[in-house]
Amino acid sequence: MKQQNHKIYGLILIALVFSFGCKRALDIDPTTSYSGSNFWTEPPQATAALYGAYTVLQGAMGPGSVLYGEGRADNVVLNPLALSSQTLNLLTNNLNSSLPVTSWNNFYRVINQCNLILKNTLEMKNKGLYSSKMADYNSVRGQAFAMRAFCYFYMTRIWGKLPLVTEPFLDANQPVSIPRADTAAVYTQIQADLDSASLAPIPASYATAPATRAQFTMGAVNAMYMDFYMWRHQYTKALDISQKIMSNSLYSLASLYNASSTVDYNVNPELIDNTAYAQMFTKGFSTESIFEVDYNFAERATRSFLITVYGDLGFQPFFKASGYLSSKFTSTDLRSKINFDTNSGIMKFFEKSGFVRGTQDDKNIIVYRLADILLLRAEALNKTGDVPGAMALVNQIRKRAGAAVYTDASFAGLNTDQIEDIILDERARELCFEGKRWFDLVRTGKASKVMQPINGLTKPENYLWPISLTEIRLNPSLDQNSYYQ
């Protein structure tokens, strides 16, 4: 890859691997390159550019979201037969700035695409091009604000301070010298973008069910607000926003356990593929999904590459399920039969029978779903003193899985920190392998407690990742995170 491909503002001409869109959810071909004066002259072009931003987001999230969210945590262990020095570095906490995963380039590509949309749609509106299509204008801009907020929020949890870029770069060879803004400024930008998306207003839904799950909606913005408030320990705000998500009729928990069912999944494990819960991961777009990154091999040959990091299907992925995670599941908890096989292979995203690696490695990456929000709300309730309310939400998730619920007596007398550990254990069971665990440990201040016995992690400054050496070479105003200097 040429050096210029790593500049923080990204390329406008996206590499071919990122030129495919998510056709099954979006009905206009995406655009990620612009030439001449005949672009930005009609609203459908801006919509195509928006879909191009979703296309670039595919490249940023698959499978990188797994490495960022799971690779340094305790849900996974290294597959001893996998040939990946990078994943070994993550699991042993030996990060360095030469690892490819330390580059934020793909996220800044998304941001540059969003900046182009926001700049040019405003100019189009001022020219009267949206005079009779203000709903389209608000939708495109609202989604661009939401996507930019998502990228900055995702990155600041990984690298901390960030260069804040809110104007598009048009020349891929343009010199860049932009210092990192502190996290307070980054948080201010994220809040402003979320607020702008809300005020646009961003749509509540789209024409099709897949589009409603694969594009930013008001529900997805509220889920991001929730994540953001919890990261900043603003529990009252988190409780207010989560109530809006819970009352949204678009979202309901996917079914899994049925007490009256006579199906024995121990005898016929492949039958679990027929449950709505399993199909949330294998097919996507469930009623539980709030926002997911959509991939489609059959129509546009896009892949999430989850099969390279998970699975046990006749080849060697990077990770297996850790024994520590496996031990958290009771024998009645059906999630264990979905999450991994008897050889600790991670099977959550793949059909238990009939999976074809060559054409089915396009499983969506679920960013937010209702169970995630309910368990975050449980954390907020616990922090604000409502332990019964918190445990009721935990029990709602456990009952759906067929696991025994907690009785009042089982948590009576436990302090806030102990209740939080129960909730985090439930999040580990429910959301394992979905790129949440590392952020959960850092957010709650438990990363060292959990990971020190595993890989020696002890210093909070080590929670941040190093910044890619390539990025530092291309932007002389960047400083490296202190732990890696």
In short:
This is RagB/SusD family nutrient uptake outer membrane protein. InterPro entries: SusD-like_N, SusD_RagB_dom, TPR-like_helical_dom_sf. The chain is mostly helical.
Provide structural commentary:
There is one protein chain. 46% of the residues lie in helices and 3% in strands. The chain has 485 residues and is mainly α. It has a domain at 13-76 and 96-232 and 463-484: Serine Threonine Protein Phosphatase 5, Tetratricopeptide repeat (Alpha Horseshoe). Helix 6 packs antiparallel against helix 8 (218-231), helix 9 runs antiparallel to helix 15 and helix 15 (370-383) packs antiparallel against helix 16. The model is unreliable at 1-23 (pLDDT under 50).
Oligomer: single chain
Computed CA radius of gyration, to the nearest angstrom:
22 Å
**Beta-strand share of residues:** under 5%
Give the strand tally. 4
Uncertain stretches: 1-23
- Residue share in helix: 40-55%
The succession of helices and strands, N to C, reads HHEHHHHHHHHEHEHHHEHHHHHHH
Please give a handful of descriptors for the protein shown.
single chain, 485 residues, mainly alpha, Serine Threonine Protein Phosphatase 5, Tetratricopeptide repeat, two-stranded antiparallel sheet, 21 helices
